[in-house]
Each structure stands twice: as C-alpha cells, then as structure tokens.
Recover the amino acids of this structure.
C-alpha cells in the first residue's frame, strides 16, 4: 500500500502499486485496514465501502486505475474477471 488518507472530495482512500507500473485507488471508504508501505495480497480486505468525502449519493466505491501517472479505464484490465449479470454464468 502506498497511501491511505483523505484526498480532496474522495474521502478515505487506499492507493496500491501493482506490477507493470499499474496503480489502483479505492475511494469513499468508511474505514481501511492497511497501513502505509504494507504489502497486500490479492483478496486481502483493505477497507469497507462507505460514503466519505464530498459524495452525497450513499455508500459506494470509486475505483481509479492508473498506468504510470495516467488514469485508464479499469474495464480494459478487469474484463477477464468481471461477471456480466445479464449472462447466464452457471
């Protein structure tokens, strides 16, 4: 984990550096369970969904994905693991 703080409008957040110069930030958390410079593993609980920050629409997660310093569409990287609720996945 690289950061956990309160950014402008984003509420409580956690930022994680991944391999291949990728980074994720999870914003509007209610709480977080990791600390600065902690190594986290896939599937590890890093925080809880919340509504912190300037958002007024209720609990949700804002996911930001970066390649270097550039924000990118997370769907391009997550398509292999996302489940389409409109398909029969059984």
């Amino acid at each position: 984990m690289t950061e956990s703080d309160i950014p402008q409008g984003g509420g409580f957040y956690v930022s994680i550096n991944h391999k291949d110069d990728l980074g994720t930030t999870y914003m509007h958390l209610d709480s977080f369970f990791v600390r600065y410079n902690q190594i986290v593993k896939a599937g590890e609980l890093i925080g809880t969904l919340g509504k912190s920050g300037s958002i007024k629409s209720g609990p949700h997660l804002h996911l930001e994905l970066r390649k270097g310093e550039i924000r990118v569409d997370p769907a391009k990287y997550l398509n292999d693991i996302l489940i389409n609720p409109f398909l029969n996945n059984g």
